[in-house]
Amino acid sequence: MRTQVRHLRFSAAAFASLALCWLVAERTGATAPRPAVAMIEPEGEAQRYWPRWRGPSGQGLAAGTGYPDAWSRTENVAWRTPVPGRGHSSPIVWDDRIFLTTAYPDGRASMLAYERSNGKQRWEAFVPDRTPEHTHRKNSHASPTPVTDGRRIYASFGNRGLVAFDFDGKLIWHHSLGTFDNYHGTAGSPLLYQDRLILYQDHDGGSEGGAFVAAFATSTGERLWRTEREATVGWGTPVAIRAGNRDEIIVSGQRRVVAYDPASGRELWRASGNTREVIPTPVVGHGLVFCSSGRAGPTLAIRPGGAGDITDTHVVWQSPKGSPFVPSPLLYGERLYIVNDMASIATSLEATTGKVVWQGRLGIAKREGFSASPVGVDGKVFFTNDDGETFVLRAGPEFELIRVNRLEARLLASPALVDGHWYFRTEQDLIAIGE
Q: pTM (2 decimals)?
């Protein structure tokens, strides 16, 4: 377009033509400048560990090398320790501590702390609430992953409320959220953003009203703001992004993706295209936010930073089918990796265009066979199914299955990776994998 502009005679018609070109460019984003877009990551010491759902990047990416890509029930197992109760939350790591949550048949729920060096349990601290909650067979009363800032550990327990413990297991505060009417129970993890926790819960009414997104002070648990949402069901986790000079909280939920102002909870923009049931957490890169939605539905690539309904102007591409129902997508380099957990098929797409690069089957086709989200590390992509099988793929332009690792244990939680070690939470154990 710049070449054509140099030859224009600036008549009224030329000005009109040029104005039309600029309008088209602005709407399509073809030549208009785009704001830099990035996930907001914790700073400082947090970058050394795995302090939240999907690690410091919030996207399932592990920095560095030295992580083994081969293991079994005995090979490369540094230690294994039993985990009481039942839970599907992922482990988080800070210094020499591993934290995860669990729940018991009698209604108790707790936070557990282990030594990272040897797997020894250090303490267990219980939540002062036993309010019952219905869950799906693949859900639990301890599915949300906790988050830590290095001083406190924060966790959501659905009907049992939001809690904060210190590193010695002392309860700092407990905030009741009321009861939720969600037919599969609750599962979304809290997001740590500056001095507040962001949590959303889509449901069809409860003791405190319907669906919402809210912010709570990390120091006291006091609610800072609450915004009502138009949704009746969902199990996702919000993310915080920086779009240009503005921070946004992104919630990929029922029927639409919505961005909120983290300071006030005010809605900034929305884009339609999701299906009814949404679980995957969005990932961010290449100026886009990638959101997958349920039961092999579409994946949306959205350019953030707009205002109002941006469906027609900011949805850059949309895949028609094949998206995950439960696992989140993985953005690794130039490609987006997803697994259709209704058919056990992995897909690699060009992140900027949505073009399919390759597809390949991961083991036996099985409905809802994957729950853990994929991990990218050292040039490889790792997909783990519910049977504890990890499919190791080369990150690249071809479908290249390197090997399949088998822990021989049922596994629904996503792993944590720190200092060359993997930490897997199975239904019965916490396992450290390292050479």
A: 0.90
